[in-house]
Amino acid sequence: MDKPRLGFIVGTRPEAIKVAPVVLEFRKFDSVETLLISSGQHREMLDQSLAVFGLKPDIDLGIMTAGQTLTEVTSRALEGLTKTFKERGIARVFAQGDTTTTFCAALAAFYLQIPFDHIEAGLRTDSISTPFPEEFNRRAAGLVASLHYPPTKWAAENLLKEGKDPKTIHVTGNTGIDAVNLIVKTSSQDWFPEHPGRVILLTTHRRENLGEPMSRIATAAREVLEKTPDALLVVPMHRNPQVREVLMKILGDHERVRLIEPPDYEAFVPLMKRAALILTDSGGVQEEAPALGRPVLVLRDTTERPEGVEAGAAKLVGTDQKKITGEALNLLNDKEAYHRMQQVVSPYGDGMASQRVRYWSLKNLGIDSPGVTPWG
Ligand code: UD1
Ligand code: UDP
Q1: How many A from CA of 178 to the centre of ligand 1?
Q2: To bridge 55 with a disulfide, which of 5, 50, 152, 230 should be the other Cys (CB 3.0-4.6 Å)?
């Protein structure tokens, strides 16, 4: 009998990082065939993230264009993925999180009536438009999923509240923690050895922060730097031109600011470790910072990741300039408050999420494989 052919779909940087450990895990088992399929929603940022794990897409739809709209990404990804699933005889589709690629993978699988397994399922805010359009994307993916892999108990409860069948829900931990654990063991990049002082790391890219909120974030970061004479502010710039324009305008001329190209994951993990404080609106960075013992201020009004905030490793500070500046300076100057945040154990996973995904999906296909202790 032919082996079932499983399609793993990626489109953007965080999907590459969080799906890579899952693909590597499935590739240890020769009872299935795996195809890594990229929509190419991102280009350089996706390729560099996969390369760190020694992966290259088997199929690449290459849909990215500069300044792409959501409609353009959606129509191109939906059409390309549908065609690929049909032509390549995909028996089961896996996608992660809440990007437009993920939504299209779920919809394409649904139209073709192929089982869809959703990794990092169940994250929710109260509003369909925050974050935009990710909240819609993940709810829609959840509507059609055969199996749901929430990273935490809280995410599983969200799915149960929506009436999903408990037998289809398996708490796995976040596969992003598998990724960070894999990289932290091998990566040794030494960031700013010539600078004895602290590093403040800033990343921002969210669609809802483009424009005014991003200007406030950058201005606040500059103010924090002015009041912290020993610090360097390091800002890996997302490739979105709308992000870069604001960052360069507000931060470009400061002698203690380093605006850098986005380091690949192997270099970015040591950069997070080098940082005394992380300011971010990124979902993935919010999860990784506590795993690395780094306090994180979340530059968003709501988060679908309340676990880090509840555990005391993260603070939700929004995009108000004064609030960001106040909270950051407080942490940089108050050793005890800093230490309390640093000591929290990662609420997002134990590094074995990919094994749990592999176990439950293979079981659903009628294939036995080694089990793993439950998480959460
Ligand atoms: C996308 C996801 C978001 C995720 C983010 C991760 C959607 C709707 N948004 O947002 O959930 O948090 O990725 O980073 O799916 N660009 C490049 N090279 C790259 C990547 C991007 O030049 O490798 C530029 C292009 O001009 C592109 C723009 O960035 O048009 C925006 O990319 P897009 O994927 O549409 O949105 P993101 O903000 O990256
Ligand atoms: N990341 C990276 N290089 C960078 C910035 C981020 O490798 O310059 C990694 C980060 O560690 C995390 C992922 O990219 O694993 C997060 O991607 P992003 O912030 O773009 O998306 P989000 O998680 O917000 O969807």
Answers
A1: 23
A2: 50
